[in-house]
């Protein structure tokens, strides 16, 4: 687990070894009082998988919205530090926290440390996800389990930990990041599509269960979005995919981040148990969108 607080950006980028930040949050806290900056004065947003891609765009946008941003990452400290630097450039602050949220113990410890340090969690964005695309007849149990642990079980753990904090404080928002693969069929994506379809069911059920706690639970469903994962499918397949989108382009990470920001804003307080699809109209054109 790692902590990064109010430190000069140039120092972070040039002089301090990243390893110095691989410290447990508790090592920077006294027995009774946390030393983190803005510990009680800013709303706190926790974003899983925020080291790059969509998560980075969300971190920047939520920084612009005035959140103290907790940047969760699993392995790439350098990318997490870059995300933190970008959050700082918005005028906000935050911290990086290294944890594999597919490990329930690490996920629980992360929320415990954040609450101990800040005394609140206002927003959780369950963004971390993986894909292990493979033809169903060749799909190994290990690959299926890995996808389910990260894309579904980890979300369940993070939602549960967040909901306990939010129930006590009397407010909160949870935004789960889905995929248009849950709305229309994709070859060789049985495990990924199944995990993201289940995520929508989790979102709806959780919204119903937590409605009396003033906790809103929504989902944002991106279609093809500019990212390393999308680029990895190859130019030919990418071109064919974009041709199926009525807008004839992929979404930008900032557009997905804007939908997340709306769900977390006062204007989005009536959004509960529903999903915002940001896919350029592809699933609507296919006639497979489900509300």
Describe it.
- The chain is α/β, with parallel strands linked by helices and 291 residues long.
- It has one domain (9-278): 3-Layer(aba) Sandwich (Rossmann fold).
- The protein contains ten helices and seven strands.
- A seven-stranded parallel β-sheet has the order 3-2-1-4-5-6-7, with helices on both faces.
- Helix 2 (53-64) links the parallel strand 1 (44-47) and strand 2 (68-73).
- Helix 2 packs parallel to helix 3 (77-89), helix 2 packs across helix 9 and helix 5 packs parallel to helix 6 (190-210).
Which descriptors apply to this entry?
44% helix; single chain; 10 helices; disordered N terminus; Rossmann fold; 291 residues; seven-stranded parallel β-sheet; alpha/beta
Structure summarized in a few sentences:
The protein has 291 residues and is α/β, with parallel strands linked by helices. The protein has helices at residues 9-15, 53-64, 77-89, 104-118, 141-169, 190-210, 228-231, 235-243, 253-264, 282-286, and strands at residues 44-47, 68-73, 94-98, 123-126, 172-177, 215-222, 275-278.
């Amino acid at each position: 687990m790692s902590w990064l607080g109010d430190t000069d950006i140039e120092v972070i980028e040039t002089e301090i070894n990243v390893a110095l930040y691989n410290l447990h949050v508790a090592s920077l806290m006294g027995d009774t009082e946390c030393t983190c900056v803005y510990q009680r004065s800013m709303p706190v947003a926790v974003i899983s998988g925020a080291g790059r891609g969509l998560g980075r765009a969300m971190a920047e946008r939520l920084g612009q919205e005035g959140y103290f941003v907790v940047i969760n990452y699993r392995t790439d400290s350098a990318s997490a530090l870059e995300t933190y630097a970008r959050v700082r450039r918005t005028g906000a602050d935050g911290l990086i926290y290294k944890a594999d949220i597919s490990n329930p113990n690490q996920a629980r410890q992360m929320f415990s440390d954040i609450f101990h340090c800040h005394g609140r969690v206002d927003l959780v964005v369950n963004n971390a996800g993986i894909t292990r695309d493979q033809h169903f007849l060749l799909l190994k149990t290990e690959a299926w389990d890995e996808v389910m642990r990260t894309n579904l079980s980890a979300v369940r753990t993070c939602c549960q930990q967040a909901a306990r904090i939010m129930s006590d404080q009397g407010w909160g928002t949870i935004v789960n990041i889905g995929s248009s693969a849950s709305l229309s069929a994709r070859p060789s994506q049985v495990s990924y599509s199944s995990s993201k379809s289940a995520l929508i069911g989790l979102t709806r059920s959780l919204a119903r269960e937590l409605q009396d706690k003033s906790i809103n639970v929504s989902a944002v469903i991106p279609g093809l979005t500019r990212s390393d994962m999308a680029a990895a499918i190859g130019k030919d397949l990418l071109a064919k995919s974009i041709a199926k989108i009525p807008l004839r382009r992929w979404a930008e990470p900032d557009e997905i981040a804007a939908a997340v920001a709306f769900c977390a804003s006062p204007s989005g307080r009536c959004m509960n148990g529903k999903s915002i699809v940001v896919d350029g109209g592809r699933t609507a054109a296919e006639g497979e969108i489900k509300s």
